[in-house]
Design brief:
- By secondary structure, this protein is an alpha/beta fold.
- Helix 5 packs across helix 6.
- The protein is globular, with a radius of gyration of 25 Å.
- InterPro entries: Class_I_gatase-like, CTP_synthase, CTP_synthase_N, GATASE, GATase1_CTP_Synthase, P-loop_NTPase.
- Catalyzes the ATP-dependent amination of UTP to CTP with either L-glutamine or ammonia as the source of nitrogen. Constitutes the rate-limiting enzyme in the synthesis of cytosine nucleotides.
- Its EC number is 6.3.4.2.
- Residues 307-536 form the Glutamine amidotransferase domain.
């Protein structure tokens, strides 16, 4: 097993996840089996209870793990299926060690950070690195991992300082991602932050084999030579990644700078110097992305719109679908509170700007979320999409609110609501699931991959999924559509075309006589891949560009 540790310096959010994923993509294109582990130093057991403004979206895995969004990057780039144990947190490690101590496994010894916590980290990494993540279920050959050097992450850094000797030099490689800023005042690219970052890392006992320098613009050769000299590495060990038009370009930039040849020599890998067809596909995809001319605009109506990472997988799923039909995506984030009537009185400019965005969009998407804030604005957007025949996709809460909107405006149940927002409503069209504990918040939802069965052949989504009898998608919800009231909706044209294997839980809605009005209880964005777009999102883009019917008539084949 070969281990590649990716560390970050200078600032967070520098792109460790994308760079690690891109390196994995290159190695996978050389015929190697690659897995990935993300290390987060927070004390939370998992990411499930975070606000999206803390660390971005919560990514959900097949086994129900609620994890950091970087694991989403790993899955999308490498086309693998990871597990909850591929995301290590301080909370998980300490819980594991404390449970062993309570069990008496340490035989009365004083339990300390070194060696017990550091040993637990190393043991976890070695065990998880062997778990198959590809469809062929073969053991991986390379394990990519990422962590940072904050004070709370010191036990992890110390664990890897020890681990590099345990694994041996030919099996362990450290990549350090740093920032090369370019102040506007001088316009000169500065190397001092990278020098200090590498010096600090060396002081902790880790010496980088590759230094990946992030910058706004391409870095000059003189800067490369300066970093090489002051950071005690060869010039070919300094890699530049400047801001690019799309993340699809990153693996290509890395490959152009000789990273395959370096890894072959440094880790003694049994590979050719040249990448395979997989990387050629990435090159074609990156070139196609940059040449797109036609634009499709989608309005994303949510409550976490100030930070794009809050909807990272939704954005990627839309981007994959737009690229598949040769359109450039124009994603307009709309804060749902700005669509509400109260906003008109409070700030009429924001209110009218939000509505202007919504009205000019080709399609409307209402993603998942929790809590009552902004729900009235989402209901307004759904009503607009339904009455104006705008293509619409509702995901999780978006589907539930589509049911609430239909109940209020088509069934005339004025107080129809979800018990999440109004526990005393007389028409509870969305209810909490009885088997899920409302006391503890962490890990108590309906999570992970579940089967959804189509109950009719006359379904747009079934056709988009290739006319399959069932689909398996990832879930993350605590509330569901009230199954006792579904017949009232179906009589008026809102069809529940998909349900769970028992037939009690409503999973997919479709509205009759509408170009595309679809809601799904699951999160299809988590399964979207650059070369395999998610069918519900693809349907939204096709409908928004007016090409859905032609696509269905061609037997769900994309035009060349």
């Amino acid at each position: 097993m070969k281990y590649i540790l990716v560390t970050g310096g200078v600032i967070s959010g520098i792109g460790k996840g994308i760079i690690a994923s891109s390196i994995g993509t290159i190695l996978k294109s050389c015929g190697l089996r690659v897995t990935a582990i993300k290390i987060d130093p927070y004390i939370n057991i998992d990411a499930g209870t975070f606000s999206p403004y803390e660390h971005g979206e919560v990514f959900v895995l097949n086994d129900g793990g609620e994890v950091d969004l970087d694991l989403g990057n790993y899955e999308r780039f490498l086309d693998i299926s990871l597990y909850k144990d591929n995301n290590i947190t301080t909370g998980k490690i300490y819980q594991h060690v404390i449970n062993k101590e309570r069990h008496g496994d340490y035989l009365g010894k004083t339990v300390q950070v070194v060696p017990h916590i550091t040993d637990a980290v190393q043991e976890w990494v070695m065990n998880q690195a062997k778990v198959p993540v590809d469809d062929d279920k073969k053991e991986p050959q390379i394990c990519l991992g990422g962590t940072i050097g904050d004070i709370e992450g010191m036990p992890f850094v110390e664990a890897f300082r020890q681990f590099q000797f345990k694994a041996k030099r030919e099996n362990f490689c450290n990549i350090h991602v740093s920032l090369v800023p370019q102040p506007n005042a001088t316009g000169e690219q500065k190397t001092k932050p990278t020098q200090n970052s590498v010096r600090a890392l060396r002081g902790l006992g880790l010496s980088p084999d590759l230094i990946v320098c992030r910058s706004a613009k391409p870095i000059e050769m003189a800067v490369k030579e300066k970093i090489s000299m002051f950071c005690h590495v060869e010039p070919e060990q300094v890699i530049f990644i400047h801001d690019v038009s799309s993340t699809y370009r990153v693996p290509i930039l890395l490959e152009e700078q000789g990273i395959i040849k370096y890894f072959k020599q440094r880790l003694n890998l049994p590979i050719d110097d040249q990448p395979s067809d997989l990387l050629m596909k990435w090159k074609k995809m990156a070139c196609r992305y940059e040449r797109l001319l036609k634009v499709c605009s989608i309005a994303l109506v949510g409550k976490y719109t100030k930070l794009s990472d809050c909807y990272a997988s939704v954005f990627k799923a839309l981007e994959h679908s737009a690229l598949a039909i040769n359109y450039k995506l124009d994603l307009m984030y709309i804060d749902s509170t700005e669509l509400e009537r109260s906003m008109e009185a409070e700030n009429s400019v924001k209110y009218h700007q939000a509505w202007h965005k919504l009205c000019k969009a080709d399609g409307i998407l209402v993603p998942g979320g929790f809590g009552i804030r902004g729900t009235e604005g989402k209901l307004q957007a759904i009503s607009w999409a339904r009455t104006k025949k705008k293509p619409f996709l509702g995901v999780c809460l978006g589907m539930q609110l589509a049911v609430v909107e239909f109940a209020r405006n088509c069934l005339n149940w004025e107080d129809a609501n979800s018990t999440e927002f109004d526990p005393d409503t007389k028409n509870p069209v969305v209810i909490d699931m009885p088997e899920h504990n409302p006391g503890d918040m962490g890990g108590t939802m309906r999570l992970g991959k579940r089967r959804t069965v189509f109950k009719t052949e006359n379904s747009v989504l079934r056709k988009l999924y290739g006319d399959e009898m069932f689909v398996e998608e990832r879930h993350r919800h605590r509330y569901e559509v009230n199954p006792e009231l579904t017949h009232c909706f179906e009589e008026k044209g809102l069809k529940f075309v998909g349900h769970d294997t028992e037939g009690n839980r409503m999973e997919i809605i479709e509205l009759e006589n509408h170009p595309y009005f679809v809601g799904v209880q699951f999160h299809p964005e988590f399964s979207s891949r650059p070369m395999k777009p998610s069918p519900p999102y693809l349907g939204l883009l096709l409908a928004a560009t007016g090409t859905l019917n032609a696509y269905l008539q061609r037997g769900c084949k994309l035009s060349p």
